[in-house]
Amino acid sequence: MFPINNTNSIFSTFLVTAIPGLEAVHFWISIPFCAMFFITLVGNATIVAVIWRQHTLQVPMYLFLAMLAASDLGLSLFTFPTMLRIFWLDAGELTFSACFTQMFFIHTFQDFESATILAMAFDRYVAISHPLHYSSILTSSVIAKIGLAIVVRTLTIQVPLPILLKRLCFCHSNVLSHSYCLHPDIIKLSCTNTRINSIYGLFVLLSTMGLDFLLILFSYILILKTVLSIASYGGRLKALNTCISHLCAVTLFFTPMICLSILHRFGPKLPSHIYVTMANMHFLIPPVMNPIVYVVKNKQIRDKILKLFIRKGPEESQVKFIT
Which chain regions cross the lipid bilayer (predicted)? Predict the structure, then answer.
């Protein structure tokens, strides 16, 4: 997708790595990763399918949840296969074009998920602070515009990253420190000036996930202000309970990302397995846990999923899909 015509680089490929020091047990490590990949695919695909099929769920909260599940699916499809390829085949070699393409889609789905989590925070704010005007504020047209804005912002800000990488030469090393291609990891291997890449990469981080995180915090300050104004204790708990799943998504997504970004750019030199572990937490754990959290906490989603598979009667063995 992103062809490279750089003839000044000594290397023509990058080498992604698994977990340093555990090469002898790669096969056994791959078993839990396979299980995580399966849970991710089934869980997120089921959520998208249920919301797509059930018209009663096509309301703002669940439409945003479907967007979150779709971004988790995309992120997983561009991370898990590369890891399993290393574990099973010991094949960690990627061409520059393949690596830059993977990097583009990983960061694109990462930003898409961040923006979706922000949209979900806005949804929770409107639902708690303006419940009587919820349906008039978050109309289908508004949801469509929010989704379009997320896509446009993400693509606009991510497309320059691989284009800027094309001008770099790579002659120091070609071994990446993660199991997939990430922008900060790639530019560290360049033997040419990467100031523009570093500045733009930091701008991307601050203007997308950094800004989203601050706006989410601001949303919850407003939500907390509204909750504290509720007279009854039961009413406060009920309002806060509607935010539990979203707070879990925020914590799962932003905590390892913030720590990893700080370590990459400003932190001291640490053992490679620390970076690898934190990167894996950021890219692998949220897609696995988000569908579990939302299914466990949301009775309506859980009931609709269960209703997808019910038998017509004891004499019939085929599964019927309910619409």
Answer: 27-52, 59-80, 244-263, 275-296
Residue percentage of the chain with pLDDT more than 70: 86
Closest CA to 164 of 186, 147, 142, 137: 186
176 in helix, strand or coil?
coil
Residue 16 burial by CB count (10 A; 0-12/13-18/19+): exposed, middle or buried?
buried
Contact 304, 58 (CB under 8 A): no
Among 295, 252, 298, 299, CA closest to 46 = 295
Q: Which of 251, 260, 128, 131 is nearest to 205 (CA)?
A: 260
> Which residue, chain included where needed, has tokens 């099929």?
53
Task: Give whole-number Cα distances, 209 to 3, 47, 85, 157, in Å.
Answer: 28, 24, 29, 12
Give one DSSP letter per residue of 135-146, joined into a string. HHHS-HHHHHHH
Beta bridge partners, 15, equal: 93, 175
Find residue 310's DSSP bridge partners: 320
CB 170 within 8 A of CB 188: no
Q: Across-strand partners of 153? A: none
Closest CA to 101 of 185, 10, 3: 3
CA atoms of 317 and 309, how far apart (whole Å): 11
- Alpha helix (H) residue ranges in 130-210: 134-137, 140-158, 160-165, 183-187, 195-205
CA distance linking residue 43 with residue 28, whole number of Å: 23
Of 290, 134, 153, nearest to 212 by C-alpha is 153
| pLDDT tens per residue, range 123-170 | 999 999 898 899 899 999 999 999 999 999 999 999 999 999 888 888
